[in-house]
Design brief:
The protein has about 160 residues and is of the alpha/beta class. It has one domain (about 5-145). The chain contains 3 helices and 8 strands; from the N terminus they run ββββαβαβαββ. It has helices at about 65-75, 95-105, 120-125, and strands at about 5-10, 20-25, 50-55, 55-60, 80-85, 110, 130, 145. A 4-stranded mixed β-sheet has the order 1-2-5-6, with helices on one face. The protein has a two-stranded antiparallel ribbon with strand order 3-4. A two-stranded antiparallel sheet has the order 7-8. The longest helix has 10 residues, at about 65-75.
């Protein structure tokens, strides 16, 4: 997961929940009105503490994924949820595992996406097969686990 930013506290981004916001780097759109243009082009290996200038584009340094999970562990009982946004989070190859790990801490997860990767959304919202272990198990006895994400319709 390429994390380009972290907002440690929000009361707005996940309605009814106290959340943190993870900003992923990289986007397949080049919208003129984008409010996160520094996250559009993925940047590898940045070690600066503050935004830097690369060419004419301002970018944020990458946040180490392990540091992010240390942060989440320290906020247990204080935060309810994590919002994953971008850039476009569905570009991240390890998005499903990242979400599962966040949910493993007991947090709700909200995914903000431009919707241009329906196959990723379908994978995240469909039941995941659980591995069959042990002798004598048949395919019919294997259970499907719950989806990585559940679709919640907006009330707007």
């Amino acid at each position: 997961m390429i994390i380009g930013g972290l907002q440690k506290f929000s009361l707005l981004d996940y309605p009814g929940k106290i959340s943190a916001i993870v900003f992923t780097q990289g986007c397949n759109f080049r919208c003129q009105f984008c409010y996160n243009p520094m996250l559009v082009w993925p940047v590898e290996g940045s070690k600066l503490k503050y935004a830097q200038e690369i060419g004419r584009q301002k970018v944020h340094p990458i946040i180490n994924q392990d540091d992010f999970f240390v942060f989440l562990e320290s906020r247990a009982g204080k935060l309810d949820a994590v919002v994953i946004t971008g850039g476009e989070p569905c570009l991240q190859k390890d998005l499903a595992e990242f979400i599962k790990r966040i949910r493993g801490f007991g947090y709700f997860v909200k995914l903000d996406t431009n919707g241009s990767y329906p196959e990723v959304l379908a994978k995240l919202t469909s039941p995941q097969p659980s591995p069959c272990k042990g002798e004598g198990k048949t395919i019919n006895s294997c259970q499907k686990s719950s989806p990585v994400l559940k679709i919640i319709k907006s009330k707007q």
